[in-house]
Amino acid sequence: MVKCLSRQLDRTFGALADPTRRRILQQLSKGDSCVTELARPYAMSLPAISKHLRVLEKAGLICRRRNGRVHRMNLEAAPMKDASQWIEEYRRFWEESFDRLGEYLKELQNKEKPNVHHEK
Amino acid sequence: MVKCLSRQLDRTFGALADPTRRRILQQLSKGDSCVTELARPYAMSLPAISKHLRVLEKAGLICRRRNGRVHRMNLEAAPMKDASQWIEEYRRFWEESFDRLGEYLKELQNKEKPNVHHEK
Question: Which of B9, B87, B93 sits opposite A29 (nearest CB)?
Fold first, then answer.
């Protein structure tokens, strides 16, 4: 079960690690689409787009329905739930690091204030 | 700016797409660690672990401090914030799909009930 989830996370994060694939998912979030419609915004060959679609399909992030020669794709966001939960475990760490950065910037501002006063 | 964020997302998601790298981050969430300590749980050579550490470092997910020959690593979760925000945009889609699954399972149960009654 754990191993299966781990493999799914490999595929989900791997699929999301590419700008073209993220844009395809964004396009599909607006509605189903066929391969040629998906390929249109990119200066990319159909085989190149098809390769990206296969990665997304293997990750379970899109679903393909065949209607003769036309392949329609739709978004399947379910695998993102586990990916989101995995990342959420680290929220307190990034929140802490942004808090530290905020405090550091505040300290810098306080240090700069007397100088500004002095220059007057 | 958008391109820079996109490249960072490539690196963050790419770094998270491997079970060893995810486990290293989990180890570091418990506290700083040196390379040999990080390598211990894995049947992996030090160069193989070092390669994973370099991917994590390039993604800005860990930070290396050198103390002579000892390299200590610590978790830097900040880049995960954008990755989490990117995925969050799809929450309504995965919630919808789990709702649909729930409704489908409820329907199945309702369909099965009369049969159980009939068998009595």
Answer: B93
**Backbone φ, ψ for residue B75 (5° rounding):** -70, 135
pTM attached to this predicted model: 0.85
Q: In what order do the strands lie in the sheet with B33-34?
A: B33-34, B70-75, B62-67
ipTM higher than 0.90? no
Q: What tokens does A3 get?
A: 């191993």
Cβ of residue B97 closer than 8 Å to a chain A Cβ: yes
User: Nearest Cα to A16, choosing from B103, B8, B45?
Assistant: B8
**Interchain CB distance below 8 Å, A16 and B84:** no
Report the Cα B42 to chain-centroid distance in Å. Answer: 18
Task: Provide the shortest C-alpha distance from residue B115 to chain A (in Å).
Answer: 32
